[in-house]
């Protein structure tokens, strides 16, 4: 019994020392991590909607806390007037969640750009969704009707060509964008 | 001194991946590009060296029947430290390696070296052992990643090698390619050894 | 319900943990020389992984998130898994010696099996509920068992095949695993 207590005590001390070391590292790196995450977020927003003077996080105003796909709403302002909306959406892809940024222009009512923030898709297949040519397939699409994924060259204005051999990923990204598009149409186009 | 011997054995003759066949999971998974391989190799080397040093320095006071839990806690501590550092300074690499950074904890190379070497040898010898094993792991990882990236994506370190008309053999970058390439590499090494012996 | 079904099919076939996600390759190559031992290992992993998924989920939600110490996740999970494996070993030995005889040798190996820690972390990353996490854990363990048993079956026959000398042993096993991985990619159409 005494032996067991001694061993437990030794293990406890080891855990405490290791915990201390890790906490210290965390205290040092936490501000840097927060800073770089903020930077990535800001750069992402700028990339998706470049023509803005100010971008404000208005998630609380537009979303209920338990939305399964839409995660964040940022509104872009120019000369004090809202000109664009950027959504952060999360949808289920082939290997796990895909987090995507999608921007809409209020005046022209089109998609400005998209950007994949994080994913766990297969390298070489679904992971190609991060390539610029995939984002280009969405640029300029009208935000008045749902987008549809097709496997050939798109015929119709709201068709988007899937990545070869990665239809599941393409569909997942499009599903998230459609959800955002729907919210955008209801709250920003019809409301004005 | 024979520190050189401790260091160099990990590179080829006792290479943890190619000869001892340890730590296969992360080798197969992150070898899709040379950049990933280098990042992973660096992270694992850091953990190996630090864990070896600490475990070697406490080897005389750890009661032998709880040594494994103690080693695991020490290793997990260093893994978390490198995880936080990578998240802070190389966030892109951190995201692309994903779950395989925390999984360094259960990489058999590290616990294996702690048990087989650091718990029996002095601090400096353990340091060199860790460094050699870590580098050996990185070399194996990079060699595999080199073949997979060049053949499977037509790129090296993210730079396109053969121009736009090149159709890469996609299978190499997909999961099956990892198994098959590593299998062929091991067979090639066997062949070399055979030649040397005869 | 459909969500659970998707998780199960996805974990066992489409995203098989061994041949497409590379978790648990060490026991896959090490313990898969005989079908019998593959089944034993698979059963032990299923048992532990189901429990570990549920417990690590509770630990994440009620300890790590509560005190905002998410950065201690790796350490806490590996400790939970190590303690769980010890505990399971003691309970099984006490109450079911026959089960202990069948699984006993595999249990200590599970602590350092990356399937267990990997799935525990994936459960958290994917924001699963506790039921989904448990289902995912068991389904992944079944996928692991399936791959292990199939592979053991192939390897038993491989012993009689005339393999080039340099490919004998692990190299041909890896190439076989690659071919199996190609076969599993065929399940992608299920999604």
Task: Map the helices and strands.
The complex is a heterotrimer of chains A (192), B (198) and C (191).
Chain A: H1 2-48, E1 54-57, H2 59-62, E2 70-78, E3 81-92, E4 97-105, E5 110-118, H3 132-136, E6 148-150, E7 159-161, H4 167-189
Parallel strand pairs in A: 6-7
Antiparallel strand pairs in A: 1-2, 2-3, 3-4, 4-5
Chain B: H1 3-9, H2 24-30, H3 34-57, H4 67-89, H5 91-97, H6 108-118, H7 123-153, E1 155-156, E2 159-160, H8 175-197
Antiparallel strand pairs in B: 1-2
Helix pairs in contact in B: 1-7, 3-4, 3-6, 3-7, 4-5, 4-6, 6-7, 7-8
Chain C: H1 2-14, H2 25-30, H3 35-64, H4 73-95, H5 97-103, H6 107-110, H7 114-125, H8 130-158, H9 170-185
Helix pairs in contact in C: 1-8, 3-4, 3-7, 3-8, 4-5, 4-7, 7-8
Structure description:
The complex is a heterotrimer of chains A (192), B (198) and C (191). By secondary structure, chain A is α+β, with helices and mostly antiparallel strands. Chain A is built from 4 helices and 7 strands. Chain A has one domain. Chain A is elongated, with a radius of gyration of 22 Å. Chain B has 198 residues and is mostly helical. Chain B has a two-stranded antiparallel ribbon with strand order 1-2. In chain B, α3 crosses α4, α3 packs antiparallel against α7 and α4 crosses α5. Chains in contact: A-B, A-C, B-C. At the B-C interface, α2, α4 and α8 of B face α2, α4, α7 and α9 of C.
